[in-house]
Design a protein that fits this description.
alpha+beta, 1 helix
Length: 90
């Protein structure tokens, strides 16, 4: 079995709104969800600005058990996820 798996195209239609440090809202479309070492990661692209690159965030749960997206701060984790995403997009 592969160390990562991805969702089908039909599943990938989620629009999310992320709020930056300054309180500004940014709309993204989740184009892929990848699982690496039992963690799930979302590959997002901006909904309005095609010039911006893709963003990869990890799914987590907040204190109330709701799904949230968080940044990947560990360099080793980031490299594993980036490699998995590259393999899927090839």
């Amino acid at each position: 079995m592969s160390e990562h798996e991805n969702r089908t195209e039909a599943d990938v239609t989620d629009l999310v709104v992320l709020i930056d440090e300054e309180g500004a809202e940014h709309r993204f479309i989740i184009v892929e969800v990848v699982e690496v070492d039992e963690e799930k990661y979302a590959v997002l692209v901006p909904a309005e600005d095609d010039d911006e690159g893709a963003v990869i965030l990890r799914f987590a749960l907040d204190d109330e058990g709701n799904d949230i997206l968080v940044g990947i701060e560990d360099e080793e984790e980031w490299e594993m996820v980036a490699k998995a995403v590259e393999e899927i997009l090839e």
